[in-house]
Amino acid sequence: MKADTRPSMQQMVDSTTHLCSPPLIYQRLNEAINHPRTSIQQIARIISEDQGLTARLLKLANSPLFGFNKVDSIQRAATLLGTREIRDLALAVTLVANLRKVDLKDEQLLNNHWRHSISCAIVARNIAFYLREPGVERFFVAGMLHNIGRLVLCLRQPEEIKSTFRQGMTSHLPLHLIEQQIFGFDHAALGALLLETWNVPATITRMVAWHHQPTGTHLSGKDAGVIHLADLVCQALGWGPDPGIPVTPLDLKAWEMLNLPIKALDAVISQSEPQLVEIMKILEDDL
User: Fold this and answer.
1) What are the C-alpha distances in Å from 43 to residues 19, 80, 153, 176, 201?
2) d(CA 267, CA 269)
3) Domain of 191: which CATH number?
4) Does residue 2 form part of some domain?
5) Rounded to whole angstroms, how far apart are CA atoms 259 and 249?
């Protein structure tokens, strides 16, 4: 019997971390936030050391997405958003910049990936806001990172991932199921393992892990359901990462669990479209 020569998830993560890793500033923020005596002023000083990150976070805080008015300092942004929320946003924003520098040899695929990720982040946050979920910024970050495992697959198994796209177009199977057939796991599980390695909060990691099967876990079913729905909405609107690939089927149990009226979903989409244009402008240097 021929041995399975496919790389494991752990091998893929291990071979990827030297190419892309969480920014040092995120690690410093993590340590500071987890220390009981750290003040908001200290958090602001750490972020302010990175001028590019500071500028982007202030633009985000002043964008229609957040609805604040004249936020002119990181300390003010951290006060309004919360220290953990500003840390998570810092991770998402800097990862966009860092991972854009990775040589994927397919610029269009990479651009599609980030546009889908950013649109999913916006829609997920707006759904969570409508549902009055606590800590809505974590939904923004989870939406931004939900497909990061597919980016790893593109880096490490480029020919195989192209095969999943081709099969998706002809078989009409969801891509994550084709990934399971080819790799033995899907991008959701791979992305979650990578984020765990980076010590990303479990609330975000679980949403990434379960966004294709949100009712498969009791730990974060509703949270993952928000990312699941946002992902499908973005695909249906043409904000998907894979042009020509059929939209992933909706998990009806997740839809029932969210209990989101259709009219509310229409409002979320109408709200998200102009925000997407605005956030793309803010991050356009990275895209």
Assistant:
1) 27, 13, 34, 38, 17
2) 5
3) 1.10.3210.10
4) no
5) 18
Q: How far, in Å, CA of 21 to CA of 24, rounded?
A: 9
How far is it, in rounded angstroms, from Cα 282 to Cα 279? 5
1-16 pLDDT, tens digit per residue, is: 445 677 889 988 887 7
Neighbours of 177 (CB within 10 A): 16
Q: Domain span at residue 54?
A: 14-282
Q: Between residues 104 and 266, which one has the greater pLDDT?
A: 266
pLDDT for 243 = 64
Q: State how many domains the chain has.
A: 1
Q: Select from 187, 177, 180 the least CA-distant residue to 156.
A: 187
Stated pTM of the model: 0.90
Determine the residue type at 150.
R
Q: From residue 214, how far is each of 43, 93, 156, 202, 253 by CA, in Å?
A: 34, 25, 27, 15, 9
Rg for the chain, CA atoms, rounded: 18
- Return the structure tokens found at 244: 């020509």
C-alpha to C-alpha distance for 243 and 169, rounded to whole angstroms: 9
Instruction: Examine residue 9 and state whether it is found in any structural domain, yes or no.
Output: no
